[in-house]
Amino acid sequence: MDTTDPEIQFDDNGICNHCRRYEESAKKRLHYDKRGREKLNNLVIKIKQEGKNKRYDCMTGLSGGVDSTTATYYAVKKFGLRPLGIHVDNGWDPEVTTKNIKNIVKNLGIDLYIYSLDWEEFRDLQLSFLKASVINWEMPTDHVTAAAIFQVAREKGLRYIISGRNIVTEEILPQSWSYNARDLRNLREIHKRFGSIPLKNTPTLSILGWIYYTFVKKIRIVPILNYVPYIREEAKALIKKELGWKDYGEKHHESIFTRFYQGYVLPKRFNIDKRKAHLSTLINSGQITREEALEGTKKLLYSREQIEEDKDYVLKKLGLTEEEFEKIMSKPIKKHTDYPNNQFLFSKLMTFAKLAKKITT
Question: Whole domain around residue 248: which residue ranges?
Fold first, then answer.
């Protein structure tokens, strides 16, 4: 990490706030010891007992990426769970992702539920974030995906959602590089100002909705990879061999839009190379050295030909001309908090969130 994160801080020993946060999170949320194994085994028993007379005993999100694939593999092969796989299709899956998901469900013998978003609505929502000139162009995907998964879990009567979310590859991310995807007010206000199509069929999740799912319906996120030693390269080798999984490149590049956003938009418009955060997390978890990470950032994210191909595809799919897109890219950058938001409310709910975290981790 470096000062492309304007909020980075170093202590007297030269250790930055991201490293300190990683260490704190690892102590609290990694459960590799005997107590953690017992906790996970007890949870698996509980999931199986509650799902004994049901077709499925849990649900697992499938993006086609390394983390969700490995989490699903462990759930089925290591712990004997019977998940319903769910994939939220936002219209940006490349062929490799589609094939990966088909291979995963086929080789694991699980059913797949595809939640296809209303493309015209979702396209309008994505465009509104581009036009708003804010940094988190992925907020529509992240927010709507979470809302859809909770909605389907409730409809199917499933209380446990197996997640690929993990500490050892994802913990470091500067606040200035993103924004809280749960902030429905911010999402709605940006869409209200810059969108044109009402979101009648697009799932969303308010703070009250999150409280309802978590405390009333008692739906629980199970970050299974925080309970088993998770080495990313070893996981890739495993799922390639066992599931016929194909590598798609950098982290989160299982989506064409995400690949273009992280590989082109973030560096060019916001001076952010998100690999620095991803690689820094791998350094902290002991999976690579700092020298290897520095070498990694010297490599091209993807070829110039691929950039042009993706750019052409993204613009056509969003209905933008080259001139319109360049105008978006050159507008003054806005903060999410320049638009109405619930950031204050989220900060006041920290105590509540900590309680929820105990339930969902």
Answer: 18-360
